[in-house]
Amino acid sequence: MLTVTSRSTLAEMKAQQNKGLLARHPWHFALLVFALVYGWSFMRLGVDPIMFLKGFPQMGGLLRRMWPPDWAYIPAMIGPLAETAQMALLGTTFGGILAVPTVLMAARNVNSNRGIYLAARTVMNFIRTIPDILLAALFVPVLGVGPLAGAAALTLFSFGIICKLSSESIEAIDPGPLEAMDAVGSGKLSQIAFAVVPQILPQFTAHVLYVLEINVRVAGILGMVGAGGIGMWLNTSMAIFQYRKAAAIILMFFVSVMLIDYASRKLRERLI
Amino acid sequence: MSDLQAQIIGKLRGGIYKRGFLLALIVVFYVLLITDLEYVPTRLSAMSIIKSAFPPDWSYAGSVFKGMMESINMAVVGTVMAAVLAIPFGFLAAFTVTGKKGSQLTKTLLNADRSFPELLLAIIFVRAVGLGPFAGVLALGLHSIGTLGKLYSEVVEAIDPNPVEGVRATGANSVATTWFAVLPQVLPEFVSYALYRFEINVRAATVLGFVGAGGIGKPLILNISYRNWDKVAMIMVVIIVAVTLIDTISGWLRSKLV
Q: Is A211 part of a structural domain of the chain?
């Protein structure tokens, strides 16, 4: 018995030695791969620090031409700014509404049907791979230039994020209430209403608010592809070298983003 | 007693009225928001676009692949730049390191940085360093410093103080303490967050070309405006496959790390 054990230990040691370099030093290997990927990327882009140093004075020149912002332009931009907020709000709301059934279908502890579960997962993962502004660029030819395309793009975009975040929280809920309701033989819908929703509602709301913060930022740039909001005006003023107007727009946008962030953060703190 | 009852009922009723009023207000607000959107009819229908997008133009795949590679390269260089530069900000923004005031100040700065979307930064950098992927790298990098700095600071705030005290008790100076007690605790999570940011940056890098900042975005926006839907479809196939692949690999790595 003893010999067998010692032989097997010996075999294990041998196996350890015979294991490739990769298995013995996974972190060194990872570092090497990383260095290669990084070096390759760096070379391929032809990025050189000299370009950056040369760009610095130009950057300064640009900022000088932007200052002072054209304050008189601000009243004219209140409309586009409101349109930006409108798109963000509509996109978040409808994204959130669409997300509710999908999230429930994409949670293993609520939905036991594997086919529907996989379908819901696939849809939400698929939508999440498409960048926000690309969605907008695709909606503009269909829905026309303007905030409608932007709101539609933000709806899909919000749907993707809210689904992702909330399905994770749903799978982490306390299974007790669900099992209790199952035991008394209640239906799926009442289980969702009384065992899932109360547990998930604060987190879901927090996720929606978080997505609203993201959407305000995104809505500000969707105009660059014609999907409404302040981005179109920013793009135009940059393109015709009216940098002081551009600065006024950037400043307004920045202030509104910070304000909405602040309000949303306060609300979220109260929720959780 | 009945007085109290009446009071309670009154309050409840008031609550119902208040809620009803609020709900009505919200509904009116949304109706206004929606009716304000006007539909400008276009000659293109979604159906006709989808029809002309199939099959995707496979002969175009080679050059799309190249553009996607450039986007990935931009994401790699930009993320690494931010992941390194965000470290000092992460420590400065942790209230356990710089106290309440210093942390608040750095956090506000990082928050301000995050408020500028990549695409907006890209427009500015294109003016400064010219068209091309370098402007994109800088835009991704600068924006990511804001997000990573904030995430790093949360990691630093949550470290276990025992190893730090232990190393300090041996008479080690602050550099040695950071090196032996803090870094080993925060590094895996820093790397994990950097990987997560990389996933986001790959997506962002595919659209920075919309404003001339390199990557697959430039042919993408051109083909959308020329209505070459089969080419657009090809580009989207490549983007979706590449993003999914990178998400999977990066997610697997992150699960090994933390």
A: yes
Nearest to A142 by CA among A226, A232, A235: A226
Query: Whole-prediction pTM value?
Result: 0.84
Q: Which fold has domain B57-257?
A: MetI-like fold (1.10.3720)
CATH number of the domain within which A107 lies:
1.10.3720.10
What is the DSSP-derived secondary structure letter of residue A67?
A: P
Chain A residues 11-40 within an 8 A CB cutoff of chain B: 30, 37-38, 40
Q: Is residue A66 part of a domain?
A: no
CB contacts under 8 A, A 201-240 vs B, are 217-218, 220-221, 224-225, 234-235, 238
Residue type, A48: D
Cβ <8 Å between A58 and B133: no
* Spatial separation of the C-alpha atoms in residues B4 and A207, rounded to whole Å: 41
Read off the pLDDT of residues A142-184 as tens digits, 9 standing for 90 and up: 888 889 999 999 999 999 999 988 988 888 888 888 888 888 8
For residue A123, the enclosing domain spans 73-271
| Contact state of A254 with B111 under an 8 Å Cβ cutoff | no
A99 and A172 both lie in a single domain: yes
**Total domains present in chain A:** 2
Examine the domain organization and report whether A21 and A85 are in the same domain: no
| Helices within chain B (DSSP H only) | 2-36, 46-53, 61-92, 95-114, 118-129, 133-157, 161-169, 174-177, 183-205, 217-225, 229-257
Q: Once rounded to an integer, what is the mean pLDDT over residues B221-245?
A: 92
